[in-house]
Each structure stands twice: as structure tokens, then as C-alpha cells.
Amino acid sequence: MSAWLTLFSNALPALLDGALITLQLTGVGLVMGLALGLLAGLGRVYGNRPLRWLSVAYIELFRGTPLLVQLFLIYYGLPGIGITFSRMDAAFLALGVNSGAYQAEYLRGALQSVGQGQMLAGRAIGLSRWQTIFYVILPQALRLVIPSWANEPVALLKSSAVAFLVAVPELMARAKSVAAQTYNPIGAYLAAAVVYLVVVFLLDQFMKYLERRTRIPGLDAEGTRA
Amino acid sequence: MSQPVLVAKNLTKRYGKNTIFQNISLTVQERETIVIVGPSGTGKSTLLRCLNLLTHAEEGQIWLDGVEITAKGYNEDRARQQIGMVFQNFLLFNHLTALENVILGLRRVKKLSHEEARLRATRELERVGLADRSGHYPGQLSGGQQQRVGIARALALEPRVMLFDEPTSALDPELIGEVLEVMKQLALDGTTMLMVTHEMGFAREVANRMIFLEKGGILEEGTPEDLFERPQNERTHQFLSKIGDLHGKKASKA
Question: Could you give all domains of chain A from N- to C-terminal order, each with its CATH number?
């Protein structure tokens, strides 16, 4: 145990360096995914036929194939048609489009649970359809989506380990080099696991805080009257 | 007589093969309070929704202040901005406080400044007796309070006509009075209103005209006295006396 603690404290600076890149991957992927998820989620529920079709195609394609395949296609495949990304950018893009597909589905569920009545009420005071969506339905859906959406940062953070396979020096890559240097793979990967665990815990706490802050008084999480 | 506020001519509404109502024509004059009654399933609510274009009649035309709003290319949002609607189940915006519910339309439809909208919304809430609840969310208000906010939200936009779709049907009996009181005051103030309700005591007291709708058509219309005292149609008499027993007393207490 004390031998592992020594390894852990020796490896910690490198692991934290890697964790920083992991967080960066997660953050950029999450934000990119949020933008794509909003577009695709709204498109799927409220878009006209082509927009709906496009949204469904995007969502099904990126939820239906492994993240690793997407990453390799972007990093190794796209250069074949003249589009080249750096390792980091390829990882950002893969995580972003992948997460966007999942976030779109979370949002779709929330949009649908807001209910048709709110649309009627918005139209009745003379708002246009898209005004009603933006001022009435989306604000409610974004609050409703938080409990299920809260899994996404954590899932994405863990998925970001695939970036290691295109040699992005994130947490997993650092663990691997620690394992090679110390000839102690169990110790090294255990140390990485501990760092992941701590980061995930902190992230979870933040999500819970967000959920509390955005609650609508008198309305419970499912959108029904308390 | 001056130009009517709302005119509907030969409206027919179908869902698939199902005809909800057929060839309904009606005229609403300024400052008039019209009550529509009739058994459920005769398309009373659908008729109201056709009038503000929330749903579309397959046939017929509608004019608002002499302008045909069912004409091709007419901006339907503009029509709805001038027709207020109050729903049976309130349909307040759940994520907004009472005050914000009223403000939204003033800001986005009437394009008022934030300050102006706030002032106007506050006045509207005072008018329905809810100034002290302005910071409450719909989920924190009683049904009667929610419906009064719903009325304020519609009134704030200064509509040419207000449509009420069974505004008290979803309320506990002891909360009906406060809503009817507000509506009575509106009628006294000369608000042009068209409402579907089962509150016969209320109808008798404030309606200028009543329309009895059955089986997708207007069976009879006239003043409340006409329909209650001298119904031309046996069916009208039957319905009104039955529903009067159920709803009449409650309402007269209001």
C-alpha cells in the first residue's frame, strides 16, 4: 500500500497534467455537443420534413456507431479526402459530434414532455411558433433535461479516454507512460482510476447544484405539478 | 349598428370523416357578452379555437373588424394578437411567475420596453386581484388564482374580443366564484366576450345573447330570457333546465 502511495504521489503531477487535457476534451466536446444537440433535438421535434430527416440521420448515425470508429474516421479517414485535423482537433470533433447525438435525444424527450398545451398558450397570445419554442418551451425543456443530461458530462469524460488511441496526451496516455516507467501497470492504472473517480465526483456535485438552482417552484422534475 | 368585431360565416370543421360542426355563423358586436352552451362533444371548444385560428375550419370565413383573417396570406399571429383566449386548464407558462406570464406577451408581441411591460402587467394583475401574488409561479397558485392570471395575461394585450373556453370547469367549486367575479366585472366594463360555460346563473346575469349548440349546429339563439323562459325548441328547454339545476345555484352566489 505504501509503495503504491509513493507511486501515486510521484505520478500525480503527470496524471493531473493528463487530467487537465481530459477535462479540456470533455469541456469542448460537451459544449460542441450541446450546440449540435440543441439543433438536432429541436430539428427532430419541431423541424419541417427535411430538417427532421437530417436530425434523425445525424442522431442515429452517431449513436449507432462506436465513438472509436468515428474518431478513426475523422483522424485517419478524412485526410484521404483532403481534410486533415490535428490529434487534438480530431478528438474534440469526434467527442463533440458523438455527444451531440446523445444530447439531442435527451433534449427531445424533454421537449416532448413539456406538452402541447404550452404551445397552444403561446400561440394564443400571438407569439409565432418559433417564438413560442424559444420563449416558452425551450426554457422549460432545458430545466427538465438536467437530471438525465447530468449523466452526459460524466459519460463523455470517461469516453474521452479513446483520444489516447490517436496519441492525445490525456489522462489515460499519461497512465500508460507511468506504467511503462515504473513497470507497475496495476499501480499506474489504479492511480489513473482514482483521478477519474475524483473528477467524476466533483462533476456530479456540480450537476446536483445546477439541478437545484434551476428548479421551478411548484413543479417537480418530471414537469408535472407537485 | 356599427361594424361587428367578429363575424364567422358558414364554418365547418371536420376531423377526418368526422364532422365536428357544420355551417356555423355568428356575429359578435362590440361590448357584447355571448354565452355558448350545449352538451359536450358538440364542438364548442373547437369552435372557439377555430375563431382565433388555433385550429382551422375546413370551410367558412372569419372577419375581425371587417378584415378577413381566414384569407390566404393573412398573418395568423396578427389575428391571435387581437383575440384573447382563456383556457379551461389555464395553460399558464409554468416556468414564469404570474407577473412574467403577463409580461411575456407585452414584451414579445406588443414590443413594450421592460419597464412599461412591467407596469402594465402589474396593473393587469391588480385588476384581477392578484397584485400580491405577482412573484408566485403557477405551481404555487390555486386553480382560481391561475385562471385569473390567465385572464390578466390575455387582457394585457388589449384584445378586440376575449374568448373563454369553459374557464371554470376545471376549478374546485369554492374557487369558481372568484373567477366569475372577475369575468362579471369585465362584462360590466364593456369587454367584448364570447364564452363557453356551464355556469347558467352567470349566463343569465351577464349574457346579452346565448347560443345553444347541439349536434354540430346552432339549434337556437337569443337573449337569456328567450332561452330560459320561452325556448322555441324542446331540446333547449330540456338541456337548460337540467344544467341549471346542476350549475345555476353555485354561480348565483358569485
Answer: 2-214 (1.10.3720.10)
